[in-house]
Design brief:
By secondary structure, the protein is mainly α. The chain has one domain (2-57). 93% of the residues lie in helices and 0% in strands.
């Protein structure tokens, strides 16, 4: 029972730390990550098209 209590307390502390980190992130960080995600999605599409073009010529 003590072990389970310790595990639960540790999980609670970890969860609190995660919440603290999320609160520290501001909207600018989130917006920047969204922009980067969109850029990476576009790059992925470009690379897929490039790969398909290479396969067609091979």
């Amino acid at each position: 029972l003590d072990t389970q209590l310790n595990v639960t307390e540790n999980e609670c502390q970890n969860y609190k730390c995660c919440l603290d980190i999320l609160e520290q992130m501001n909207e600018d960080d989130s917006e920047q990550l969204q922009r980067e995600l969109k850029e990476l999605a576009l790059e992925e599409k470009r690379l897929i098209q490039e790969l398909e073009d290479v396969k067609k010529t091979a």
